Amino acid sequence: MEATKAALQRKPSLLDRLEGVMRKIAATCLMGMALVTGADVFMRGVFNTPIFGSEEIVSILGIIVVGFALPYAHYQKSHIGVEILVRRLSRRTREALKLLTNSATLALVAIITWRMFLYAQSQAESGEVSMNLELPEYLVIYVLSFGFCAYTLCLLADIIKFFKKREA
């Protein structure tokens, strides 16, 4: 009970606030996807005229949703786990396994972030645009790499917390 009160009373970190803003942006984009899809279906059914570029708009919004929901999903621990096996291990083994998993995920996601950023740079240099609306694709890739970067920082923060807890 006291730990819960302390957690509620602590000032949110910059990473916590960033995650909150990203979560709201992801939720707004998800709602936008539903609205654009619904409007497109309505326009096709009633006026026999689809919304031009609706597939691209929904795809771009979906990319933003995925990228910006990563930190929230991490904090909610909503990723897949093999609980039936892990639950039977000792607490110390579970903690070591969590550290190993977080470290491996951090390495992988950091590489993905880095390579995605480089890919966005090459797309910007080539001037690649989307097929229908001719939107610059590199901006979407930069946004997605930003989401992965925030996820990387969340993983790094968890690893740092693990070692700080061990020292205390």
Helix content: over 70%
Low-confidence stretches: none
Structural class of the secondary elements?
mainly alpha
Write the element-wise H/E pattern from the N-terminal end onward.
HHHHHH
Number of domains: 1
- The averaged pLDDT comes out at 89
Radius of gyration: 20 Å
Seen as an oligomer or otherwise, the chain set is single chain
Question: In terms of topology, how is this protein built?
Answer:
Blueprint: H1 2-9, H2 14-47, H3 54-75, H4 83-86, H5 91-126, H6 137-167
Helix pairs in contact: 2-3, 2-6, 3-6, 5-6
Subcellular location: Cell inner membrane
Main location: membrane
InterPro entries: DctQ, TRAP_DctQ
Structure write-up:
It is elongated, with a radius of gyration of 20 Å. It has one domain. The longest helix has 36 residues, at 91-126. With 168 residues, it is mainly α. It is 80% helix and 0% strand. It has helices spanning 2-9, 14-47, 54-75, 83-86, 91-126, 137-167. It contains 6 helices and no strands. The mean pLDDT is 89.
A few lines on this structure:
Belongs to the TRAP transporter small permease family. By secondary structure, this protein is mainly alpha-helical.
Q: Which key features would you list for this structure?
A:
elongated, mainly alpha, 168 residues
